[in-house]
Write a structure and sequence with these properties.
Layout (H helix, E strand, L loop, with lengths): L1 H9 L1 H23 L3 H11 L3 H22 L14 E2 L1 H17 L4 H9 L3 H18 L4 H11 L1 E2 L10 H7 L4 H21 L8 H24 L17 H16 L4 H20 L10 H21 L5 H6 L5 H24 L1
Antiparallel strand pairs: 1-2
Helix pairs in contact: 2-11, 2-13, 3-4, 3-16, 4-10, 4-11, 5-14, 5-16, 6-7, 6-13, 7-12, 7-14, 9-10, 12-13
Length: about 350
């Protein structure tokens, strides 16, 4: 690991760009072949009772969580420096944004990662949804909606430092509740990990279908690879130290469009941008090789409105919740962030509400 860190240190920016592209390429190809999809999993569960793909989602989160916590324990990455473990729990943003994101992804035909896969396979609706989502995301980050977002966060966020905790890691909060440090971290990990694995192995029967096992392990493993790469590339003595990150697809999609427009000014693309481009390339390659590449447009005016409105909701909600089904549901959850737990629950609830609403309108 030290040899790899030394190699990455020669040019961290290049390593992040190349590594992000490789991880994204693998993600796009594997997800295309395994049909891993959180919205599809929730739809299967609600409409047919099939929990197989939902088990793959749980397996991905459990895999990423186990790997990320091991990387943190061995000093490969400092998860405490990631955005997910900030000392302020923005519960209102996670709850409201998660609900809006989950609702929106139903109308947009999939979460950002699935939309990237669709766009890579020739779905023009997916490409338009990505652009709309990016515009809405930037409007929420630093545009016309930013003031309202910041005001909501400032009015509702809970500062865990007031309770003596340096981060919002679930184990830290248990420790402040008079549970000794080592058991607190272990209890926090097992409290989330065991239910995920129990659901995957039990009701979801994920281990009865190889394709679901492959999808869950691959997505979780690629999230671990993202943490490892950005952790090894981190330099606390750099003029502008980079936060460790892993796979996520709301802000990175917006950053990708920004980079395409201003690449000469921005220079080398970062991990998020190249991972997005990698997913598109991987999905396109998988579609071409399988013969499934097809140009697909909107079926009618209502279909167009649903997709555009859903994409806008994903952009706004994803920024408020600090991530998507991958950004929060896999990468964020792997840090044992309290805000991620809230966001994940809200995204699922929003998707269920969105499905019920969509069924009535069709």
């Amino acid at each position: 690991m030290q040899a790899l860190k030394a190699l990455i240190a020669v040019s961290p920016a290049t390593a992040l760009a190349v590594g992000g592209a490789i991880i994204g390429l693998l993600f796009g190809a594997i997800v295309s072949r395994t049909n891993y999809c959180t919205m599809g999993a929730i739809t299967d569960w609600r409409l047919t009772g099939d929990k197989g793909r939902l088990g793959a989602v749980a397996l991905a989160a459990a895999t990423a969580m186990t790997g990320a916590q091991c990387l943190d324990a061995y000093g490969v990455v400092e998860l405490s420096k990631s955005m997910y473990l900030a000392p302020r729990i923005n519960w209102a943003g996670a709850l409201g944004g998660g609900l809006l994101f989950g609702y929106g992804m139903v109308y947009a035909g999939g979460c950002p990662s699935r939309t990237l896969i669709r766009a890579g396979g020739g779905d023009v609706r997916g490409l338009v949804s990505l652009v709309v989502m990016a515009i809405a995301a930037y409007a929420t980050i630093s545009g016309v909606l930013a003031g309202a977002r910041v005001a909501l966060e400032n009015a509702t966020a809970i500062d865990v430092k007031a309770f003596g905790a340096p981060t919002q890691h679930l184990g830290e909060l248990l420790y402040r509740a008079h549970v000794t440090a080592s058991p607190a971290s272990l209890i926090a990990l097992l409290a989330v990990l065991i239910p995920l694995l129990a659901f995957a192995a039990g009701p979801a029967r994920v281990f009865s279908r190889g394709i679901n096992i492959a999808g869950g392990l691959a997505v979780g493993g690629l999230a671990i690879a993202g943490w490892a790469l950005t952790g090894l590339a981190s330099d606390e003595f750099a003029a502008s130290p980079l936060q460790p990150v892993s796979l996520s697809f709301v802000r990175p999609v917006a950053d990708t469009i920004d980079w395409i427009e201003r690449s000469t000014a921005l220079g080398m693309p970062g991990f998020g941008v190249t991972s997005v481009l990698g997913v598109l390339a991987g999905a396109s390659l998988a579609a071409w090789l399988s013969g499934s590449f097809r140009l697909i447009g909107y079926s009618d005016r209502r279909d167009a409105i649903r997709h555009v409105a859903g994409a806008a909701a994903m952009g706004i909600g994803g920024v408020m919740a600090l991530g998507c089904t991958i950004g929060q549901g896999v990468s964020g959850l792997s840090t044992l962030s309290v805000q991620s737990l809230i966001a994940c629950a809200a995204i699922v609830a929003g998707a269920v509400i969105g499905l019920q609403r969509l069924e009535k309108s069709l």
